[in-house]
Amino acid sequence: MAQASVEQALPIESAAPSIPKKVRRQQKLKRIFRNKYLYLMILPGLVYFLIFKYVPMWGLIIAFQDYQPFLGVTGSEWVGFKHFERLFTEPTFFQLLRNTLVLFLYNLIFFFPVPIILAVLLNEIRLMVFKRFVQTMIYIPHFMSWVIVVSLTYVLFTTDGGVINEIIYSITGKNVNFLMSEDWFRPLYILQVIWREAGWATIIYFAAIAAIDPSLYEAAKMDGANRFRQIWHITLPAIRSVIVVLLILKIGDILELGFEHVFLMLNAMNREVAEIFDTYVYTAGLKEGQFSYSTAVGFFKSIVGLIMVMLANWLAKKFGEEGVY
């Protein structure tokens, strides 16, 4: 009887009408037209990425050429992996790699947890006026350029009348040359990053915390959970997926620390610990005119970033998280 019922069902399934391609295409066009304003909203972003991210990829070809501007991409000599071999055999390669990785670890260890902590602490504030005031104050530094941030640091820490140095001198009778010291470069760097970016980075975590069901907190209160227990067992687990995604994206920037900030703090006295790939590309590419070589350095950074994102995403999925893709 079961076999007969299966045989009877087969013709019905095979006879099920399939939607023609033309009809599916029309339905898709109707959906696009119905949501036309949403597509218009994302259009500027798509155009931006197309013009400034994808089209310039064509220029990566000069990393495999001995590029001459007057000959152009099509007329320049093809040299294969010559510039990559030079990069890996340069005496400064491991110094650049060490400096870049150390600053990245500073960012990962000292900066990355700060927005999470700030978002959780601000979420516990019940006085809305004070909460909004604090949020505004920690957002403002993000809108200052690195030129202003480094200039403020100079005003505070310079040995020539800097406020901090004046205080130190009044206590100890001597100045500390923060700006020219190799030992103080990295602490100053990470303090500037935290002061400028930590407040702005809390926005994503605030959005994730706002999506948590309030009834979970009410149930925890009824069970006798204090504030700390509620944070540990409800807030942090609820935003864990957001933390993982942002961590994966952060790891992708392992060699991409940004040029402007480090360049403004770089000087002859701290170059040994401050020179990174981004500043090296500027020196080799723009100041010395080695376009192919500097492109090869940038290409190397991009490949490492891609590998790290894929590896971090794989590990996240391995531990049961969603990942980026």
Automatic annotation (TrEMBL):
Annotated family: Belongs to the binding-protein-dependent transport system permease family.
Lineage of origin: Bacteria, Bacillati, Bacillota, Bacilli, Bacillales
CDD domains cross-referenced by the UniProt entry: TM_PBP2 (cd06261)
Record membrane topology: Multi-pass membrane protein
Entry protein name: Protein lplB
Highest taxon above the source species: Bacteria
Record domain ABC transmembrane type-1: where: 97-312
Source species of the chain: Halalkalibacterium halodurans
Transport listed as a keyword: yes
Database matches in InterPro entries: MetI-like, MetI-like_sf
